[in-house]
Amino acid sequence: MKNIHVGYLLSYDYEKLKYSIPPVYNEADKIFIAMDEKLRTWSGETFTVEESFFEWLEAFDVDNKITIYQDDFYVPELSAIENDNRERHMLSLRMGVGNWLVQVDSDEYFLDFKKFVDDLRKYDSYLENPKKNNIQIAAFLVNMYKYTDNGVLYVSEPTRGIMATNYPNYKVARNTRRRIVYTQNILMHECVARDEKELITKFDNWGHNVDIKDREAFMTKWRTTNKTNYKERKDFFYIEPEKWPELDFVAGTTLEELRENIMAKQVMPTKFYVWKKNFGQWFKFLFK
Description:
This protein is of the alpha/beta class and about 290 residues long. The protein has nine helices and ten strands. It has one domain (about 5-195, about 265-285): Spore Coat Polysaccharide Biosynthesis Protein SpsA, Chain A, CATH 3.90.550. The longest helix has 16 residues, at about 80-95. It is globular. This is Glycosyltransferase family 2 protein.
């Protein structure tokens, strides 16, 4: 108990796990990959996994930390987001309550997982009675919008990403709606920075598949936004556009180059900002 257990959900974009797993591997005690036994998404569509992926996984797992957890994660009577919640809950139960339950999506890449683990360890006392003392640990996501011209357009302001909890009473995806502890940690989130076919597959099958009210309006803006005109536009989010008001551009042709260049832009929220968020959360849940 009190280990760092990291969970992933394997689906149509499983190839991204080759980039998401390595940054957490050394600091994780165990890694669990949930895979539907019939290879179905939360919307019931089927996908295939090339054998070469499992060969890569076996070769990469030199410390024998990785477990593939297969189960029936698709219930036809449930919505996509309900299947999302259910699979995350089942995965966390397999990971073991009493440990830090970190869930990282396949298109999220920690920049410094060791620091995130160090921050988690400050709250180990919450693992003693997790159901009574349910908390969530958040980092910040740099949301990548679109690859273009030897770089990527990304949302200029990082957004909250709930990455860990001590008790997996999930209400919406990774959110248990209990107290959040914010930390100064950053992940790159490829989000909608995909080719158009991959993006449409994501929109059809992820937990928010019914939340996009005007998909064509989003897709039209996404298709036509580029390095030369992004400063002339605003409101880029796929659900409530104003939540992503502005984009910025960073050069780089590899994830490592993008990582270095994004951090050079000082996207990390300040200590004072994080302190304010944590004070607000502490006060909000003081009498709950």
